[in-house]
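Here is the promised in-class demo. Please do not try to memorize the tokens; focus on the logic of going from shape to residues.
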């Protein structure tokens, strides 16, 4: 009887230890707008969300003991959702801005980007942002590109929920140009090199960060610790080589 009792006690201890290990993994609901290659997009074959941001956050999660569940939503509802803490976090090639910092927390920066103009390959009158006067310019709603174009004089802004539709309209001659993050613009230009080109140089300096519900400073600290660890391992450079 003593032996049975001892084995039972050992079993209970092991169950307790396993339960304790399970509790260390925190489930995190993460929003992303998977229309922004090479940072996040849906793989046509697997139907899975993939990209620079996804690989990065998965690596951070492994370091920080987080279990990630991704939700694919449009960028504008993503911003509203993270501001209202409908999601624990969001990763979507999101520029850290002072306005956004009023509504959400951010991780430390992980990538430097900037805005650039894209036009049709036969365009000869747009040489960059300073020659957009009188033009109709597309941008994804809620992005810094849309904000910048909206503030330009004598420029008509056309916004899109899906930036891919903006590039389709550009190639079809429905708009004159697009203002968007340079890695995204170059992705579309490279895939449509007979139809598109960039005009001028990158004209802003922006840094991407992982957005976090404003109430969750503990999650912010875990993500920053994980980000620091993967940066030290050289992951950012590996992802640039893989995706960009």
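The designed amino acids, position by position:
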């Amino acid at each position: 009887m003593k032996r049975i009792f001892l084995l039972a006690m050992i079993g209970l201890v092991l169950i307790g230890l396993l339960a304790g290990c399970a509790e260390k993994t925190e489930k995190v609901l993460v929003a992303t707008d998977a229309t922004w290659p090479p940072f996040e997009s849906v793989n046509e074959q697997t139907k899975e969300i993939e990209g620079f941001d996804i690989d990065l956050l998965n690596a951070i999660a492994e370091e920080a003991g987080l279990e990630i569940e991704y939700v694919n939503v449009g960028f504008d509802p993503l911003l509203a959702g993270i501001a209202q803490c409908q999601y624990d976090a969001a990763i979507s090639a999101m520029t850290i801005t002072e306005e956004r910092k009023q509504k959400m927390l951010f991780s430390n920066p992980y990538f430097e980007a900037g805005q650039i103009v894209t036009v049709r390959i036969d365009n000869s009158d747009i040489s960059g942002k300073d020659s957009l006067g009188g033009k109709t310019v597309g941008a994804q709603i809620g992005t810094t590109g849309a904000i910048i174009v909206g503030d330009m004089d004598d420029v008509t802004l056309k916004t899109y929920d899906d930036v891919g539709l903006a590039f389709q309209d550009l190639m079809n001659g429905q708009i004159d140009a697009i203002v968007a993050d340079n890695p995204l613009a170059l992705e579309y230009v490279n895939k449509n090199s007979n139809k598109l080109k960039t005009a001028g140089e990158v004209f802003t300096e922006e840094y991407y960060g992982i957005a976090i519900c404003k109430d969750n400073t503990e999650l912010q600290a875990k993500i920053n610790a994980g980000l620091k660890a993967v940066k030290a391992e050289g992951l950012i450079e590996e992802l640039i080589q893989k995706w960009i």
